[in-house]
Batch of 2 targets.
Target 1
Amino acid sequence: MDFDFSDEELAFREEVRTWLAEHVPADKAPEDGPAMRDYDLAWQRTQYDGGWAGISWPVQFGGRGLSTIEQLIWFEEYARAGAPSIGANFVGINHAGPTLIARASDGQRAAHLPPILRGDVVWCQGFSEPGAGSDLAGLQTRGEIDGDELVVTGSKVWTSFANLADYQELLVRTDRDAPKHKGITWIICDMRSPGIEVRPIRTMNRTAHFSEVFYDEVRIPLANVVGGLNEGWSVAMSTLSFERGTGFMADQVELARTVDDLIALARTTTGPDGRRPAIADEEVARRLATARAEVAALRAMTYASVSRNLRQQTPGPEASISKVFYAELQQRVGRLAMDILGHAAFDLVHDPLVGEGWPAWYLRGYGVSMGGGTPDIQRNIIAERVLGLPR
Amino acid sequence: MDLLASPEQEEIAATVAAFCAEHLSIRQLRSRIGEAAAVDPATWARLAELGWFGLGLGADQGGAGYSVVEEAFMFRELGRCLAPGPVLGAVLGARVAAACGDATRCRSILAGEALVAFGDPDAGAVVGPRLDGRLLLLDAPGSDYVVVCDTSGAALLAIGEVGPLQRLDSLDPGVRLATAEVSDLAPLHFVDAATEPVGLRAQVLVAAEAAGIAEATRDISVAYALARQQFGKPIGAHQAVKHRCADMAVAAVAASAQAFFAALALDRSSPDAAFQCASATFVATTAAMGNATRNISNHGGLGFTWEHDAHLYLKRAHLLEALLGGRAAHLCELLDAPGPLTV
Ligand SMILES: Cc1cc2nc3c(=O)[nH]c(=O)nc-3n(C[C@H](O)[C@H](O)[C@H](O)COP(=O)(O)OP(=O)(O)OC[C@H]3O[C@@H](n4cnc5c(N)ncnc54)[C@H](O)[C@@H]3O)c2cc1C
């Protein structure tokens, strides 16, 4: 057990820090729409030009091929530099790309991986349906084989960035007689295909973060199937295990910075007594201190999972533990920000220089905790797969 | 960077666990309730022989040459089985003696000949070259010395120097508790925290012990959730119990991760060591309390009995949480100490 970084790792940190200091955009990300797409893709392109695209992707697929520990360093420096959150690039870089790397054919990889890295395209994830959320394997969107095409009919919901996306990783039911996990296919869907209708859904945060997507006999070449017909469940699981692995490292590291920002805010904002700064209020001070301690523990947990990852390679169900801890902590920190702001909490600011304000960050937490499996589902995973309790 | 145990550290933990299971188990804790000392002299001598008290002291001081990290591994195991006896006092007392160049006293503590009670200062007590205030003493009967520490420094005093002991009818039957007053007393030794941060070490070891409680109560709950049947299935299949167990797992992982992170920070004298140690004590004692409480819920009526161990874990968790200034003190440090992003 040690937590010293090697000389190479320290040099790497220096390299990352220098590069980020020179390249992180001064203006903040727009909250949604085409402006957000442009901003996020431009930032992806900047990282690509600097050799920092796909830091976790293997070099042979155009990525940077960083070790988990280097990724950790990258994310720490990324948070320190206040670099933009991954935004619309999330699915391409963190879901679809890694899935293609794990399961796609050479041709599929050659066609899709470079544009993701270059920031040419946005991907979205079409998994959840009105009738299939936590119970994802209950999905009903149909895919019927017709010649060398799959004809897709049905609907998806909560699809993040569907209104901005070029491609979608789509799960459809291709065998209705098979047991529910067996009849699913993972296919690459061009979002411009005839028969697709995207209807953005406004979130509680007012942004059009996600959409409903309707498919009316959408014809997708069978050549777009990844991992084989009816093999989609295992293909989808390779994405989820990635998501539960390093996919959330950035958020976890970022939260430490956020709490320190909040402490700074509490020193300058007038507190509940209308005279002294908020931090002079005992309750506020305690809650801030608690958050700071818990963020330290989150970091220690992240370091421990990185260590486990270095020894075992594939992320295990233990990642659900960090996720539950993170989701609850993030929400407590958001609540605290609201309390510190007092009346100012009711101004939903979004400033191109400052970015998303505290109230919007707070509200966003309600969605963040649900993506990739609700805390309840994470608890089921912990209990059944880590502790061995019965289903 | 590697936050997992090395094979050697795993072996230390396994050795401690095996010895505890045989000689310092809850069965022994219970059988000695009412006895003057928590551990019989023969067992104490065995612990000394095994080198437990000097695990983190240099070989030149009679220790094993490991660090606070290995001490944390030991304390996590002690916490897991609620091992009785003044081990914390011995480890910290020997360290103060060593830091003050008192090789004779250090060796007699390491040899198990002299016993050291841990003296926890009340809020408002002064720890310095002159001591003042009230102390809560852990396992004072039979002790020769008292070690007192906070974040400013640590003192070693002879047990005879503290005022008359007020024995308490201890809430925690595994620890003999007493209070005593000292007023304007010059201790045998005092060492400044800048020279030897004994107070931070105490925070790490208490955190590790608390993490052990968080883990043990999780494991006891999981075993019971598999064994106990209601409504025709193991209670662990009922989601309320299942999710409580999951929450116990989350708390235990957080506690252990932060306890060891803090141990490493202290060992390296990182600029954020004080912050990391305070975080560890706070997170781990909170986890121990939370898990001890959930463990009682998971056991139904059995959890309320004297016969079941659940209350022993709860009471020890309360005691650990109250030590070293308690939650309020840790929280004060947490807000102002330089953290990882500011260093
Ligand atoms: C911001 C955001 C972005 C998202 N982006 C995407 C995306 O890009 N692509 C995509 O496919 N999906 C996306 N989702 C959907 C997300 O994956 C689902 O919302 C989530 O899996 C829950 O499904 P549901 O909404 O149908 O809720 P339900 O599954 O209906 O759950 C409702 C409640 O019941 C609980 N519950 C359900 N089953 C169980 C059980 N077995 N045990 C205990 N409790 C249970 C849940 O925890 C929850 O509290 C997104 C969601 C959000 C909030």
Target 2
Amino acid sequence: MISEIGRYFIFLGHLFTNREPFKTYYKLILEESVAIGLGSVLLVALVSTFMGAVTTVQTAYNMVSPLIPNYVISQVVREMTVLELAPTIIAVIFAGKIGSSMASGLGTMRITEQIDALEVMGINSISYLVLPKIAASMLMYPLLVIIAGVCGLGGGYIVGTLTGIITPNEYVYGIRYNFNEFTITFALIKSVVFAFLVSSISSFKGYHTQGGALEVGVSSTQAVTNSVIAVLLADYFLAQLLLSK
Amino acid sequence: MIEVRNLSKSFNGRPILKNVSGVFEKGKPNLIIGASGTGKSVLLKCIVGLVKPDEGSVLYDNRDFFEGDRDTKIAIRREIGMLFQGGALFDSKTVEENVRFPLDTLTKMQREEKQERVNFCLKRVGLENANKKMPSELSGGMKKRVGIARAIVNNPNYLFCDEPNSGLDPQTSILIDELIQDISEDFNMTTIVVTHDMNSVMGIGEKILFIYKGQKLWEGTKNEITHSNVQEMDDFIFANKVMSSLREKQ
Ligand SMILES: Nc1ncnc2c1ncn2[C@@H]1O[C@H](COP(=O)(O)OP(=O)(O)O)[C@@H](O)[C@H]1O
Ligand SMILES: [Mg+2]
């Protein structure tokens, strides 16, 4: 376990001893960004819309007192969605979709000796293959989180107003009520950190695959579980660090 | 010419290569033969620097690969072409992009010049009309050919092939062997071929090193191989029915 973490940091060190010109990376980052964005935007939108909807219904269900005004519902939905559901739950989805495909892609390249082929040509395979993935994730994931936030609030709005839980005016009032802009900053900081963790851990797992097709599957699974654990730990520490007063 | 001196390598305390030395000559295929799991691939990977040996040195035309400075290392790397066991083609790139890849990343050639070179190499391996195909559309033999084309595209001085005909039918194997031999002669390259295929040994074995459990037990030509008086090698080469019937005739 300890030596694994050590190897992870050595791996990160190799990322930046790059030898390829910036132009090479620019193109690769663009390609990865398109793949990551297109690959996950629909799933992210779908999941976050439903999460917003469910949060609205559940919050309303739990607020039985007539003394609490209705707009508190959408205020709660806002805090939940922006702070936790969008950055963190979507990170789990991101790990499952993008992280696992990074790990299996690199794992396949490893066992079919494509990585060796790069190394023989004198190319730093870690920075050539992994740096673009990490950079693209850190660029695209915050965008996905913003989309998730919007979809989540939208989902809450649609379900809340269609089922008569809350009027459109109350919902919008609650969304705006007592809003602290730092919430957004905090969510974006979280998303950059999570994107780095998921993409680097998944790449690390895939890059160090040994064996055959079976081990590629194992790496892919480990990539997801380890990324999710790292994201949840980081979530806790970031909350401690940035929200404690 | 490549010279290997006293190479040793252990993995997790288990010795895989034990004090291997040898000379590989220019302009012809030099064969490393032996049973599966004896360390042939590890030896090859040590020579090209994918694995760092615990001890010993590798000299490329008298330039020490592991002792040399970074520039020497990079210079040598650029003179190396390697064909991997499964071809190791980048599966997200077309045949043409695969072959062009070393030129794209290692040279400052102009686009037309690169295209000409790529077409020349594909033609040389007998694949004129496959430029736009994806690796997944190719047969095993075609993948090897593309692998060879990619290995020679940057005019290497040294060519390495790990089991170039594993997984191929006997006829295609012979074609690939002959291709490797012809290319080595035409371009005067120092070529090292790892194999356990006796057909290759008897076909192109001008210079052979026999590896047994990480040690070099014998070295010679295909004409000397049947009367070496090395028991381990006799067990290896006469495991083949054709070869053993040949011995009975002698
Ligand atoms: N990176 C590695 N780590 C640990 N053991 C290895 C590694 N590479 C090869 N080996 C071991 O070295 C031995 C020789 O392997 P190899 O050179 O691939 O044999 P072959 O002669 O069939 O090519 C095998 O037992 C293999 O398990
Ligand atoms: Mg081998």
